[in-house]
Structure formats: structure tokens, C-alpha cells
Request: fold
Amino acid sequence: MDRRLERLERELMLVARCSVLTPRERKGQATDAQDPTTRPDTGTTPGVESCTPTRLDRSGYLLLSRLDAEGAMTIGQLADAFQLDVSTVNRQTGALLRSGLVERIPDPDGGLARKLRVTPRGADRMAAERTCRQTDLSRLLESWTPEDVARFEDVLTRFNREVERQEGRAWPREPDEAAHSPE
Reply:
């Protein structure tokens, strides 16, 4: 089992660096100066036209996805959700605010802290990024059978749910998505 865990740990590390899922800036490529949350498209498939000239960076995509799934949240709530320092989330959300992808609103429940919510521009950017990621993932898995893709999805969902259970921080899911996945 130790050797299997060594290989599994290595494969998870390699997934984390996967540019299909987390596009990164390459040396010598400039980002959109007006939008610090973007990175150049890394051209994940040589010879295939890229999705968009710029891509949301990892933190921007994760924050927008969480706000989209859960609704307006304070910086403190986001920091708790991601287990990050408030200062880190403040810096990351500051970039989203400056680029007009999120906005500050009064707490709808009457609390003192202002909340952040996704703007229409942010929703459009997130949808475009999600489409790019799904397109890149489709290219990556094009030689897989539908059964292999379904099995991979089921096992990965099970893994993520176990991580969430152990950490006590579930990612919000659609009701049909929660019912579909085995616990």
C-alpha cells in the first residue's frame, strides 16, 4: 500500500500543476494590464486555436466559482471557505474588484460586513473560462471511452467529498449533482 500511496501522491501533485485546469503565465508573456486576474492562454494543444486571448487565473476562477455557487460572501467567509488568511483573500478579491468581476454590496441579512457578489461581467468571464476549461478537458480525454470518463468523474467526486468531509468544508453543489454522486 505504501508504494501505491507514493504513486497516488505523485499523480495528485501532477494534476495540481495541470495547465488545462490552471492556466499559468509563461515567461515573456504579458497579461492584460487592465485586468490583473487574467493570464495568457497557454495554448494547451499545439496547433489548436486558443479559447480566448486571456484566461482567468486560478485564484480568480476559484473565488468567482465559489461566489457563483454560494452567493454573496464576506471576505472572512471566503477566507474560511478556502482556509486562507484574510489578507490573502483581500488581495485576491481586490484584483477581482478592480477588474469589475465582483462588487461590494451591503449584507442582505443586515450584517455590518459588506459582501462580495459576482457582477454580470464576472459571470460572463467565469462562463467563458469554464467553457475553455471544458473544451481543453474534452481534448485531453478524447481518446477515453464514455465509461472511463464516468468512472473517473465518480472516483474524483468521491475523493473530493472525502476531503471536504475530513476538513469540514463542503463545496456547494447543485441539488441534482449532490444526489447523483455516491457518498
